[in-house]
């Protein structure tokens, strides 16, 4: 039986029978549904890159979160639980992954969307931040926000306490990142931004002095922690690797510098800015850092 015969399959397929019509309608409906539920849903459910915002209480973390999300900071209160929002780079800022893409490439816009995770700064609630570091979900970087007006060293005054608190918290985060990098499983590099907030205030330290103050105070924290470990006998085994995991930086001795963290894949950047400036927010350097990390 040839294809041109009245009973042939091609003739039957082109014949306006009820079976042919039903099959055609089913195919016409099934193909778009397949493309939508299988291809579109699978691509849209891809987890977005995220950035973790940490720092002591009162540094302005939640205000920064709302600023990045809405374009303007909102009135906030002390956070008790983590908060995750979706944000996008400003149209004037280009992500590093899009730098060499054509402006007409629609896929270039996909990488501008990211998640911001705000964590409480109170000492008893910092485990939320630590959990996000030990079990990151597409974590691209960490923003450590500090109140630059609360870091000036004095003669035992309240600013000493602010500097000590910030240094201890930052020490713990850096030590956690060091342990994570020196584990058995290879992990990607982790950039960390120290965002010196409230630069609009007269008493705020500029970014270079924030860097020097934190390095000097972390040196003191590391010395006291190392002494405590030696007194308790922790880290005194035969393995040098075990000691390095317990002591931040180069063996816990000498002056600590953020540059030491590059050996474990942690690049530290310090940049000043202001979330609630008198003349408006000044966070351009922070946006640039996020763009470089995307």
Describe this protein's structure:
With 294 residues, the chain is an alpha/beta fold. The protein folds into 2 domains: 33 residues; 245 residues, Rossmann fold (3-Layer(aba) Sandwich). Helix 5 crosses helix 6. The longest helix is centred in the N-terminal third of the chain and has 27 residues. The termini are far apart.
CATH superfamily of the largest domain: P-loop containing nucleotide triphosphate hydrolases
| Strand/helix succession | HHEHEEHEHEHHEH
Q: Biggest sheet, strands in spatial order?
A: 2-3-1-4-5-6
Estimate the global geometry from the Cα principal axes. Answer: elongated
- How is the CATH topology of the largest domain named? Rossmann fold
Give the topology, please.
Blueprint: H1 9-14, H2 18-44, E1 50-54, H3 61-70, E2 83-88, E3 113-118, H4 127-134, E4 139-147, H5 158-181, E5 190-197, H6 207-232, H7 240-246, E6 266-272, H8 284-293
Parallel strand pairs: 1-3, 1-4, 4-5, 5-6
Antiparallel strand pairs: 2-3
Helix pairs in contact: 5-6
């Amino acid at each position: 039986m040839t294809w041109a015969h009245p009973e042939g399959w091609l003739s039957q397929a082109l014949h306006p029978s009820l079976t042919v019509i039903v099959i055609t309608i089913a195919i016409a409906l099934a193909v778009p549904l397949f493309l939508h539920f299988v291809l579109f849903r699978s691509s849209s459910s891809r987890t977005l890159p995220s950035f973790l915002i940490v720092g002591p209480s009162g540094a302005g973390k939640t205000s920064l979160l709302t600023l990045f999300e809405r374009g303007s900071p909102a009135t906030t209160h002390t956070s008790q639980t983590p908060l995750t929002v979706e944000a996008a780079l400003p149209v004037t800022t280009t992500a590093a992954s899009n730098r060499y893409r054509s402006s007409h490439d629609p896929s270039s816009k996909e990488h501008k969307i990211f998640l911001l995770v705000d964590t409480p700064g109170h000492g008893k609630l910092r485990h939320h931040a630590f959990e996000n570091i030990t079990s990151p979900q597409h974590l691209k970087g960490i923003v450590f926000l500090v109140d630059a007006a609360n870091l000036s060293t004095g003669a035992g005054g309240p600013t000493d306490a602010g500097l000590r608190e910030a240094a201890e918290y930052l020490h713990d985060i850096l030590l956690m990142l060091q342990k994570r990098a020196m584990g058995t499983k290879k992990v990607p590099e982790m950039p960390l931004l120290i965002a010196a907030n409230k630069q609009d205030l007269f008493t705020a330290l500029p970014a270079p002095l924030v860097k020097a103050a934190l390095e000097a105070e972390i040196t003191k924290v590391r010395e006291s922690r190392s002494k405590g470990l030696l007194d308790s006998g922790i880290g005194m085994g035969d393995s040098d690797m075990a000691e390095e995991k317990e002591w931040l930086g180069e063996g816990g001795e000498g002056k600590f510098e953020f540059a030491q963290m590059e050996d474990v894949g942690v690049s530290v950047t310090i940049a000043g800015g202001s979330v609630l400036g008198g003349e408006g927010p000044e966070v351009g350097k922070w946006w640039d850092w996020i763009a470089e990390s995307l």
